[in-house]
Structures are given as C-alpha cells and as structure tokens.
C-alpha cells in the first residue's frame, strides 16, 4: 500500500490513471508510466525518482536512458 501524494488516498500500488494523466515529462511533455520506484517517460525514456510517494519530475533529476 502506498499513499497517493495528490489525493491522500491509500492505494494498492503506484499511481492512479487519473493522477498519471495529470503528469507529463518536464523535458518532452510525453506521457509518464509508473514503473516501481520510478516514473518513466514513454516518449524520451527518461526515468524520474519517486521519493516518499512524490514523483520528482525535474529534468536535472532524471536518469537518461543508456
Ligand atoms: Zn520525456
């Protein structure tokens, strides 16, 4: 169980589709996908960390694909 950082509701896993739809990659504005402890951009493939349930969607925190 994780606490949703936006609604405060407890969820089974990851982020709800509604929350994910609100988020976009700060670099390319592509759609984001929850991937374990990471949020991955479906367009540029950068990964953003999730810390304490909050996605850190900052370009300078992104891990770029190898
Ligand atoms: Zn992107």
How is this fold's topology laid out?
Blueprint: E1 2-3, E2 10-11, H1 17-22, E3 32-35, E4 38-41, E5 47-51, E6 54-55
Antiparallel strand pairs: 1-2, 3-4, 4-5, 5-6
The structure holds zinc ion (ZN).
Summarize the main sheet.
4 strands, antiparallel
Please provide the count of β strands: 6
Can you tell me the overall shape? globular
Classify the secondary structure makeup into a structural class.
mainly beta
SSE order? EEHEEEE
Ligands, deduplicated:
zinc ion
Tally of discrete structural domains? 1
Q: Fraction of residues in helices?
A: under 10%
Q: Quick summary of this structure?
A:
The chain is 9% helix and 29% strand. The chain is mainly beta and 66 residues long.
Q: Which key phrases capture this entry?
A:
globular, binds zinc ion, single chain, 66 residues, N-terminal domain of TfIIb
Explain the overall architecture:
With 66 residues, the protein is mostly beta strands. It has one domain: Single Sheet (N-terminal domain of TfIIb), CATH 2.20.25. It contains 1 helix and 6 strands. It has one helix spanning 17-22, and strands at residues 2-3, 10-11, 32-35, 38-41, 47-51, 54-55. The strands form 2 sheets. Strands 3-4-5-6 form a 4-stranded antiparallel β-sheet, with no helix packed on it. A two-stranded antiparallel ribbon has the order 1-2. Zinc ion (ZN) binds next to loops. The site of zinc ion has 8 residues, from loops.
């Amino acid at each position: 169980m994780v606490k949703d950082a936006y609604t405060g509701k407890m969820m089974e896993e990851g982020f709800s589709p509604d929350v994910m739809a609100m988020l976009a990659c700060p670099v390319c504005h592509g759609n984001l996908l929850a991937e374990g402890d990471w949020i991955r951009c479906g367009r540029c493939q950068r990964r953003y960390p999730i810390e304490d349930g909050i996605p850190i969607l900052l370009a300078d925190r992104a891990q770029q694909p190898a």
